[in-house]
Specification:
Layout (H helix, E strand, L loop, with lengths): L6 E11 L4 E6 L3 H4 L4 E6 L2 E12 L4 E6 L5 H5 L5 E5 H7 L13 E4 L3 E10 L6 E6 L2 E6 L5 E5 L4 E4 L8 H6 L1
Parallel strand pairs: 7-12
Antiparallel strand pairs: 1-2, 1-6, 2-5, 3-4, 3-6, 4-5, 7-8, 8-9, 9-10, 11-12
Length: about 180
């Protein structure tokens, strides 16, 4: 059985494309193209299920058409509409740290060198030019710049990122008073 901590989300299947079972795939990380992994993992009814890829082709820098093994009709492909797609952490780690996307760190705990534990990264915001970690800080949303210059260390085994942020960037005292 595949556990949540063994995978990270890389995108979502949208809808079938054509009549031969291809799926439109919107991805946030093209790690499936940069490693030797032959499969993707889908979240179906709360269970992580691996599916081997027969082939894929890129449509843009964020979309691809994917053909899964055993999915040969538009009807079978429809079962994957809006299904979240994950990638195995072990294959991503084999690619090396320089190959990881920011989405890999969802689920990691963030510790700041001066303030200690801040919380867990719940998502990565790429809607602006500055990529941000969205951290659950005592039930509040805390935005932290996802920039290598601020990262003091990464403990992959324990899923902890240590950051050293400039003074004043975190307004934790203001958050606690609210």
């Amino acid at each position: 059985m595949i556990r949540k901590e063994e995978v990270y989300k890389i995108g979502i299947f949208n809808k079938p494309h054509g009549i031969h079972g291809e799926l439109s795939f919107t991805f946030t990380d093209d790690i499936f193209d940069r490693t030797e992994a032959e499969y993707l993992i889908c979240l179906l009814d709360g269970i992580f299920v691996p599916f081997f890829m027969e082939e894929y082709r890129f449509r843009s820098d964020t979309t691809a058409l994917v053909k899964l093994e055993g999915v040969d009709t538009a009807e079978r492909a429809r079962m994957f509409t809006n299904v979240e797609v994950y990638f195995p952490v072990k294959h991503a780690e084999e690619a090396g740290a320089g190959e990881l996307s920011w989405d890999f760190f969802v689920g990691f705990c963030v510790e700041e060198v001066h303030h200690g534990k801040l919380g867990e990264i719940t998502e990565v915001d790429t809607s602006t030019i500055n990529t941000l970690f969205v951290v659950d800080y005592k039930g509040e949303e805390l935005l932290i710049p996802a920039q290598e210059v601020f990262i003091a260390g990464i403990d992959r085994k324990h899923k902890v990122i240590t950051v050293d942020l400039p003074e004043g960037l975190l307004a934790l005292d203001e958050t606690e008073e609210v």
